[in-house]
Amino acid sequence: GYEENRSKRYPVLYMHDGRNLFFPDEAFLGHEWKIDDHLDRLDAMSLIDRTIVVGIHAGESRNDDYTQPGYERYGEAVVDELKAQIDDEYRTLSGPRTTGVMGSSLGGVVSFYLAWQYPQVFGNVACLSSTFSW
Question: What is the pLDDT of residue 35?
Fold first, then answer.
């Protein structure tokens, strides 16, 4: 794990709608993504390396942040503030090959935007059930 090897650095996956990732009591309709379980399985199968997941909470401004023109300001905050803070505080692999962004519905839309607008930051993207007609 993270604490066992203090010299190891990790890839990072930024995920939108962070309340849906781990905790059913906080997830939309009570259905969490169980992302920790899925990543553990992929790691056990040697398909991915251990990864730091950053769950970004959407809050009240979700629709504005995840759609145009709000996602421009949101994207700047994710890249210039959040990613910079995560890279400073944790042992990350900070290049685009080891940095991903992921979301569903409008979270998929903003993930697509971030990967398109910031290819020098996000080299991996997953857009699940994205609502591009919004």
Answer: 86
Question: How far is Cα 80 from Cα 19, in angstroms, rounded to an integer?
Answer: 22
Whole domain around residue 26: which residue ranges? 12-128
**pLDDT tens digits, residue range 27-74?**
777 788 888 899 999 999 999 999 999 999 887 877 677 778 878 898
Structure tokens that stand for 17 in this block: 């709608």
In a domain, 1, yes or no: no
For residue 29, the domain's CATH number is: 3.40.50.1820
Question: How far, in whole angstroms, is CA 41 from its chain's centroid?
Answer: 18
Respond yes or no on whether the N-terminal peptide bond of residue 69 is cis (omega within 30° of 0).
Answer: yes
> Three-class SS of residue 102?
strand
Q: Backbone phi, then psi, for 27, in 5-degree steps?
A: -75, 155
Please state the rounded mean pLDDT for residues 80-99: 98
Whole-Å CA distances, 94 to 5, 7, 18, 53, 130 = 18, 15, 20, 13, 26
Tokens of 24: 């059913």
**Start-to-end CA span in the chain (Å):** 40
